[in-house]
Amino acid sequence: RKAPTRKNGGTQMRCRGALCALAIVAALGGADASQAARDQKWLGKLSTKARNLRSALETAPRRDLSEHEAALSEEEEELLKEEAEEEIIMLKWATVIGIAALGATFILGFLAESIHLHWLPEAAIGVLVGMFASGLALMAHSDGLLEKEKFDFEFFMIWLLPPIIFEAGFNMNVQAFIANLCPTAFFAFIGTFASTFVVGGLVWWFGQMGLCYPLGMLAALTFGSLISATDPVTVLAVFQALGVKIDLFSMVFGESVLNDAVAIVLSRTLLSFNNPENPVDAEHILGAGKLFLIIFIGSLLIGAVGGILSSLTFKLLDLRHHDEMLYMEAALSFVFPWCAYFVAEASELSGIVSIMSCGMVMATYTRPNFSPRAVRLTARAYKVVALIAETFVFVYLGMATITFPIFTYTVWHFFFWATLACFVGRLHIYIGSFLTNCFRDATSKPPPISPAYSFVMWFSGLRGGVAFALASVSYVAGDFPSTCGGFDGDDERKQESPFCSDNEHNDSLAMMQATMLIACFTIFVFGGAITTICIYFDVLEPKKGAESTARSKMLSAMHQQKTSTQLMVDDGHNWLLKMLTNEQAYEKSDELRFDDDEEKGDEEVVVAEVEAELGKNAFTELKSEIMKPRNFEKGATASEMAANPDTLHAALGSPALVRTATKDAKIDVLRTRLPNLSTKDLEKLLEGAGGDVDLAVKNAKAPINTPPALL
Questions:
Q1: What region, left, alpha or beta, does residue 653 occupy, with left being phi > 0 and alpha being psi -120 to 50 degrees?
Q2: Labelling 395: which of 356, 406, 492, 639 has CA 20 to 30 A away?
Q3: Phi, psi of 365 (to 5 degrees)
Q4: What sign for the dihedral angle of Cα 93, 165, 388, 222?
């Protein structure tokens, strides 16, 4: 055969080079069985195409080389197109499996609850369902499907965690949270810092003692920060079902909301030292502390600004008087928290902290600007979205136990000692409780933190999605690629240690494996036992009697009776409420969360609408007028009936009758306040004021400002 010319030879050399590259890829793939299986079909197709092209190149005339080059390009494009289509199909099937697993978790969770299977919480069921779904894909040798089911950090941080955090802040009982702000802040901030160094220091020391896999110091501290992110979704669900005391709930709930944000920012700050240009010295430690404060405070401010803008927007638009805009009103509330989230992310701050802050501000200052039906709709809509997200987090965790190498060269000794370190790290609960009780006594509101409260809070420190998300992204990024990083520079100890025999293992993998195992352990064991713990330590609210079980009476009482503590809070902060809303005083709630407070029937919503339309003063006069003993059962006093919204609804009639009778009710109120005017004049005043009774009275008492149409 003649030697190829430069043009022909160059093309053949390129093709042969491609074949050599394929051979190298195949050889490397053989070292990893799963990777080889995943790429076997693709390599086979490409190798066959390349062999055919090489044969054609050897036999074809030199003048046809350009045609073969074009053919190679077309074959590659076709192959890439087929691969892309297969990936899309795998993604769709993975989506179907994920949604089906979500539905199965809800159904099985309901069935477990209905037969009182308290030791198997819904979170644990989600993990088991996720493991089963990925296990089927593994047994079917569907590597493409397993790849699509793998835990993705960006998906978790953008689509799953933000709605959970926002709903937590938006439906939080803000008054109870503020009342317990000092201990909650101690647990979430100082406690998380302390836990980071206690857990990190202990696991590093255990490794140096030869008890488990030895992590490097920075890796150990990073592990301490991410494993300190508690995720008590299961515990809080049990708390709501059992009805634990509101002070305990608010502290556990508040710590969990703040704790996740602190752990995320703290782990990012520690990873900034994983760079040779940033040595661990006093200057860089101060710089890291400054970075933490900038990220956290900046994110809080962005969220607060978003919440304030939403309050002013709804106040100026006054959508609560436009019933036809109900769904637009609820949809508009979605804009501000997610804008705050992405503004913070784009500014390289923490979107999670921002959306949490925005939720709390909106709960305090935006919700009063909603119509009564929008209040109910938004609380429940965000709760539904958060429930879907948090349930899928546990399904996602179950899938990750199969799609990640959790049970490959598993560091069981490290898992055991790290779990023990986590127990020790949670002891800051007792320290914070002791310090809090130094400023409380038996007569204070809220009361001192009892030993039972302290133990339940310590026991509630489950680990879950946030901790594993941080560990998985560190593993994928290869932040700590050293094997037995705690023995770096000491080859003799590495050779002697039984935990360092596998060179394929590294610190990032050990951290991820331990995090997953600790999360599963706490979800199944602690989550399953929390019901028994709450009952044993008697941290439940006393059962209500027959009279107090009427929900409407309790709701009325909490709106009308203010404690001295609450009034003092109102006196100091009313100026902000008046500036951002149309309200004059904060309402106190004795419910665990706002969404519990909003579980009202149609009657209460109608009464709330009437109050919103009339205004507080006119509504009070209306109640006094219609709540007369002659209209109801004998023996009932006016005050007893006025304290019950159901009684008001009974007086007004059905919801439809209320809407048609609203105008007449307003006229009756105007007649009591303007007795010298005729009914026709009162109707004109009410129409000119747009149905606002207070404005109609104001216009009547100020003739100069009365509209000409009413003169």
A1: left
A2: 356
A3: -115, -20
A4: positive
Whether the pLDDT of residue 427 is over 90: the answer is yes
Q: 365 by DSSP, 3-state: which?
A: helix
- Residue 11, exposed/middle/buried by CB under 10 A (0-12, 13-18, 19+)? buried
Beta-carbon contacts of 593 under 8 Å, excluding residues fewer than 6 positions away, are: 171, 172, 173, 240, 253
- pLDDT greater than 50 at residue 361: yes
Question: What secondary structure does DSSP assign to 637-649, as a single string?
Answer: -HHHHHT-HHHHH
Residue with tokens 């993705």, as numbered in its chain: 152
- 220 to 266, 484, 507: CA distances (angstroms): 13, 11, 9
Comparing CA positions, the residue from 164, 711, 664, 131 lying closest to residue 385 is: 164
Q: What are phi and psi of 696, to 5 degrees?
A: -65, -40
Q: If pLDDT is split at 50, 70 and 90, which confidence band does 257 have?
A: confident
Q: What angle do CA 97, 102, 107 make, to 5 degrees?
A: 120
pLDDT tens digits, residue range 79-97? 888 888 888 898 899 899 9
CA atoms of 323 and 609, how far apart (whole Å): 10
For residues 386 and 593, the answer to whether their CB atoms sit within 8 Å is no
Nearest to 330, CA basis, from 372, 360, 364, 302: 372
What local confidence, expressed as pLDDT, does residue 47 receive?
A: 52
Instruction: Return the residue matching tokens 């949270």.
Output: 177
Residue 555 CA to residue 600 CA, distance in Å, equals 9
Asked if the model's pLDDT at residue 704 lies above 60, the reply is: no
Question: What phi-psi label fits residue 411: left (phi over 0), alpha (psi between -120 and 50 degrees) or beta?
Answer: beta
- pLDDT of 509 over the 90 cut: yes
The pLDDT tens digits for 25-66 are: 333 344 344 444 444 444 454 455 555 545 554 554 444 545
Tokens for 214, please give them.
């030895």
Q: How far apart are CA 383 and CA 164, in angstroms?
A: 8
Higher pLDDT, 311 or 710: 311
126-176 pLDDT per residue, tens: 999 999 999 998 898 888 888 888 888 889 988 898 999 899 889 888 888
Single-letter residue type at 442: A
User: Sign of the CA dihedral 480, 481, 484, 486?
Assistant: negative
Strands (E), 543-636: none
Q: Among 678, 34, 697, 13, which Cα is nearest to 408's?
A: 34
C-alpha–C-alpha distance, residues 339 and 332, integer Å: 12
Residues 6+ apart with CB under 8 A from 53: 15, 68, 71, 72, 75
Please state, as a whole number, how many other Cβ atoms lie within 10 Å of the Cβ of residue 617: 13
Do residues 510 and 222 touch, judged by C-beta distance below 8 A?
no
Average pLDDT, the chain: 77
How many beta carbons lie within 10 A of that of residue 655, not counting itself? 14
Give 649-679 as a 3 state SS string: HHHHCCHHHHHHHHHHHHHHHHHHHCCCCCH
Q: What is the pLDDT of residue 253?
A: 82
**Positive or negative, the Cα torsion across 260, 264, 270, 271?**
positive
